[in-house]
Amino acid sequence: MENKKEMRQWLDNFGLDHPLVIAGPCSAETEDQVLKIAHELKDTDVTVYRAGIWKPRTRPGMFEGVGAIGLGWLKKVKEQTGLLTATEVANKDHVQLALENDVDILWIGARSTVSPFIMQEIADALEGTDKIVLVKNPVNPDLALWLGGVERLYTANIKKLGLIHRGFSTYEKSKYRNIPEWQIAIEVKNKFPDLPMICDPSHIGGKRDLIFDISQSALDLNFDGLMIETHWDPDNAWSDAAQQVTPKRLIEIMRDLKVRKITTEEQAYQNELSVLRSQIDVADQNLLDVLGKRMKVAEQIGALKRANNVAVLQNKRWNEILGSMILEGQDRGLSEEFILRVFKAIHQESINKQEKILKA
Ligand code: PEP
Ligand code: MN
């Protein structure tokens, strides 16, 4: 893609000396609530005020947003505080109304990014706009859907684009509401290096206690900004109560977060880094050697199974391996989640190799 640089120029134009901070309530509830929070965020590092007006709810009967009336409240926020405004758009009517009412930033929610039909409808409605458009990742961990959404907007000639990482839903039990799967965000960053990547720790965490830690992880990975749901009375918010923080807490979070330099030319740092990196290179070579050897043994077992007409998958043996590797991993400071991922991948490769032999 050409002109990619243009797509992030909008962020550089803000000239911020800190990550972009977007804050405000999950939902606009009343005019008073919207303005009260905005005034508490004025004169802080917050640049953009967010508030959902049309709320995509998983189940009907929950608060579905105040609708178009909230656009007037956002206008007042801009007039009274100078903050830029942002809201979610999920169809062409939302887009039209948001553009008419001069909302500065339109974001596309996770439930829209999953649907190519909706993405195309939104892209068509936004065609050629010079507003900033941010694309949240799809609800499910599908890299192609996220990339596809961005490509549709790019094709619609939208020049100020950005991404929001809000985590992915999962059946697995997790402390997160939506697991971060940072590697997917990193892959998207690699595909679109010029697009700003903003982290939404509120929807990743689902609980306000997790927000600081997730935000720091995002900054450690060089994210360009944060979107943090903020409410003057979080416990009584009409949506996402558990994950919202007060403006006071947001200010503390912004104060305590450490912004990392991308790198430094400092000599002592560079020297130590290159020593450590050569150790990593050696360790990676060793890993490859060991994996290669392990697969050779797996192939020998495959040949033995073939000669004796025995099935490839031996569940009991596999569960024993997994159980003992989790325990041994713990002794080496390796998390259960990591061990499971690594050994599942190794096991799958062994099965593939053995199957080839059995089918030969
Ligand atoms: C939101 O930002 O309030 C929202 C609905 O987010 P998501 O699309 O990430 O669920
Ligand atoms: Mn929310």
Describe this structure in words.
There is one protein chain. With 360 residues, the chain is of the alpha/beta class. It folds into two domains: 251 residues, Aldolase class I (TIM Barrel, Alpha-Beta Barrel); 93 residues, Chorismate mutase (Chorismate Mutase Domain, subunit A). The chain contains 14 helices and eight strands. Strands 1-2-3-4-5-6-7-8 form an eight-stranded parallel β-barrel, surrounded by six helices. Helix 7 links the parallel strand 5 and strand 6. Helix 6 packs parallel to helix 7, helix 12 packs across helix 14 and helix 13 runs antiparallel to helix 14. It is elongated. 34% of the residues are buried. The mean pLDDT is 95. The site of phosphoenolpyruvate (PEP) has 9 residues, from helix 5.
Summary, kept brief:
The protein has 360 residues and is an alpha/beta fold.
Radius of gyration, rounded?
Answer: 24 Å
Order of helices and strands: HEHEHEHEHHEHEHEHHEHHHH
Structural class: alpha/beta
Q: Gap between N and C termini, in Å?
A: 44 Å
Beta strand count:
8
Kindly report the CATH topology of the largest domain. Answer: TIM Barrel
Number of domains: 2
- The top level CATH class name of the largest domain: Alpha Beta
